[in-house]
Specification:
Strand content: under 5%
Low-confidence stretches: none
Oligomer: single chain
Mean pLDDT: 92
Distance between the termini: 71 Å
Number of domains: 1
Shape: rod-shaped
Length: 173
């Protein structure tokens, strides 16, 4: 029986040291893994954040370029018919949008939906006002009606989308 007690005197402290060492090693390894994950996330954010900001910049540029005022200044020319202007406006919006489609990868789904809605609303405005015109209307008359429509609105769809994106960038930074 005395031999059993001698074995317990040696075994119990050894087990306590083993359990303590195991717990400490487990804690240190977990702490090291967490630190490596944080470093990886930080490194990714250093890489991805500039790309995201660039995508948002490009989308704001798209929205600015597809605002009616901007498009009318760039596209409208003297002697243009309303039908020609209508076609040119829609073509510009579609080509600008297609050119920036890849930016949705870097944007939140909500922001991309706001951009898509702004594009759709601009097309609706252009189509709606064009349908009201007589077939012989000039591009200048069409431009004037479009500008009046936008001025009557509280916010042009592209301006509302830009404001939303600016807010999202503010939250991101």
């Amino acid at each position: 029986m005395e031999a059993f007690y001698d074995i317990l005197k040696i075994t119990i402290p050894a087990l306590l040291v083993l359990i303590t060492a195991w717990i400490l090693l487990r804690y240190l390894i977990k702490n090291d893994q967490d630190k490596r994950k944080q470093e990886l996330v930080l490194q990714n954010s250093r890489t991805v954040t500039p790309i995201k900001l660039q995508a948002y910049e490009r989308i704001v540029l798209f929205l600015e370029r597809t605002s009616l005022e901007s498009m009318l200044v760039r596209i409208s020319s003297p002697g243009m018919s309303a039908a020609q202007l209508h076609s040119a406006l829609l073509t510009t919006i579609r080509s600008e949008f297609e050119h920036n489609l890849s930016q949705q990868i870097y944007m939140s789904p909500q922001a991309w939906e706001v951009v898509r809605n702004a594009r759709s609303n601009m097309i609706k405005i252009i189509n709606g006002e064009f349908e009201k015109l007589p077939p012989t209307a000039t591009g200048m008359a069409f431009s004037k009606i479009l500008l009046e429509t936008i001025m009557d609105m509280q916010k042009e769809p592209t301006r509302a989308a830009i404001d939303y994106i600016k807010g999202e960038i503010g939250r991101m930074i």
